[in-house]
Structures are given as structure tokens and as C-alpha cells.
Amino acid sequence: MNLSRRTLIASLSATVLSGPLRAQSGGTRPASQFALDICSKVCRAVGLSQNFTVLAGDVDAAQARLVGNTRQIVYNEDWLRQAEIYSDSGVPAVVVLAHEIGHHLNGHTLDPIPADVVPPDGLRFRLREELEADLFSGGITARLNFSYSAGLPAFAKTGEKPSLDHPSRKEREGYFKAGWDAAPHIEVCPPILAGPPPIREEIVTVFTHSEDDKRIRSQFRGHGGAWQELQNGEEFAEFEEISRDPCNRILLFDSERKLWVRLTPSTTGFGKGEFNQDDRATRERVPTNWDTLDFATQGGPQRCIKGALV
Ligand SMILES: [Zn+2]
Q: Which residues pair with 237 in a beta bridge?
């Protein structure tokens, strides 16, 4: 079968129109992995166990069937492939499959209902089953992060007026939308980032001492290798990040003051600072001796051995 886009939409709609069937077995083949994946994705989206088998067969598009006590989704393999290719997004095919799966997961009887049986809510059983399946399909569409409008072509050719066993298109789209609205929405299509991810600002706060030897708090803010030191909220100095050691200590160099600073970050954001100042210092030579920036701190500098501070 080679479907054009026009016939595809018609067949998508025809399937939604056709409703579930009690059917005889036969004329079916094992499903492709592609179809199985879509169906299991639909079930996983709502955390329900799959209570049906998926088979390829000679149907228009897809159909919910009850064969004896076995629930089946029978779909047309050509239709599914074409739907993927011709609907831009492939979403209408998911909507149709989700609708059929919705009949099974809702436990619909798929029994033919006499036309004169009217349940208390005024909807005929079959009409109610169709709307429940549309509601389900809308919820799945949202949970799979597809937009509401991307799923609408599935209803394009459904009848404007209600029939004995199918509600009007407007009503069906309304239930589809209600299902979409009610589902927990994850961000639809997060923006695609060009290039590397944005650089996060790092903050390490340490105790240091002022020029008159008062113990003060100092904040180092790093962004893409450039670091600023702020004291009392005001910019105090600038550093270049040279490297990090295996213990994740950050080595900074201020070429004007020939000053090295080594920061030991902590998960609390309150870290430890050490320094080395030498007129002969260059950015190429990492010092081996360090003094603490915080004179009140007991204990000397730690060594990094096999990635651990000792
Ligand atoms: Zn249906």
C-alpha cells in the first residue's frame, strides 16, 4: 500500500471513526519492533501494564479487537510507516494507536450495543467509549511531550455530525483536548542548544584576612575560567583559572600581584583558601608551598594523594 498524505489523513480518521470490533482471529502477523515500541511507550506513559497483544494485519490503519478473551491492537504496517513519514511529526499515528490502546486500557467491552440502550449520563455506551478513548489519547499526547495541535490531524476527516456509534468531531476534539490539558505537562520540546552547554557560575566563599589583618569573608566567583574575588560585596581582585588538581582544588593566578590562590570547594559552598605570593611566580609554575588565607584556621595545607586530601 502506498498512501499519499491525503489518503493517509483520511485513513487515520477512518480508523478513529471505525471503532473497536469483536473479531475473528486470523489475517495477522507479528508486529514490527517499531510498532511494539510505540505501544509500549503509550503504556509506560501512564504506568499501566499492557493488557493486549500487538499484531500487524490487513486493516485500514489500526483497530482495537477482542478475539475471545484476548485483546489485540491490529495495525497496518504500511500505514504506520507512511504515517511516520507523511504527517511531519508522526504524532497523528501515535494519537490513533493511543486511542485504540485506550479502548483496551479502559476495559471497554467492545460489545455491540443496541441502539436503544441509553445509559444514565445520556451517552450511548459506544459513544462514551469513543470519548474515553479520545480523552486517553489526549493525555498520552501530552505525556509524550507532543503539542495538542500536532495530534489534531487524526480527527481531520471525522464526521461533523454525531452518528449512532461516533460523537461529532467537535466533541471528540474537545475530549482529546481535555485529556491533553489534564495530563501532567513536562516542558514541551526543550530548546535545542547549539554548541556546548552554558557555563555555570561557581561560587566558593572562604575566610581570609584584610590588609590590616582582620578576619573577613571573601567570595570567589568563577565563570568560564575567569574568577573575581569580592570582599564585602565589592569587586576586589581578578584571577585566571590555571588548573584543577585531582582533589578538585581550583588553582587561580593573579599575574599582576604574582599571587596564586588555591580554593578547596565544599558542598556547602563554604570552602577553604590558600595562597602563595612570590615575585618570580609565573602562571606556568604551580607552587608547592601554600599558606592558609584564614589565619584563624588550625592545621597546615593538605596534600592531595590519589585524589584524596590528607
Ligand atoms: Zn474508538
A: 229
Smallest CA-to-CA distance from 186 within 223, 213, 156, 146 is with: 146
Domain boundaries, the chain: 5-182, 202-309
Question: Model's pTM, two decimal places?
Answer: 0.53
- C-alpha triplet 204, 201, 243: angle, nearest 5°: 70
Tell me the three cell numbers of residue 65.
479487537
Distance 132 CA to ligand 1 centre (A): 9
Report CA dihedral (216, 219, 225, 226) to the nearest 10 degrees. Answer: -80
Helix, strand, coil in percent for the chain, rounding step 5:
30, 25, 45
How does strand 215-223 pair with strand 62-67? unpaired
Return d(Cα 109, Cα 106) in angstroms, integer. Answer: 9
* 38 CA → ligand 1 middle, Å: 18
pLDDT tens digits for range 176-226: 999 999 987 655 444 455 555 556 788 888 888 887 878 888 899 998 889
Q: What are phi and psi of 254, to 5 degrees?
A: -110, 105
SS3 154: helix
* Cα 299 to Cα 8: distance, rounded to the nearest angstrom: 76
Distance (Å) from CA 30 to ligand 1 centroid: 22
Residue 227 near residue 241, CB atoms below 8 Å: yes
Would you give the end-to-end CA distance of the chain in angstroms?
72
Nearest to 273 by CA among 225, 216, 211: 216
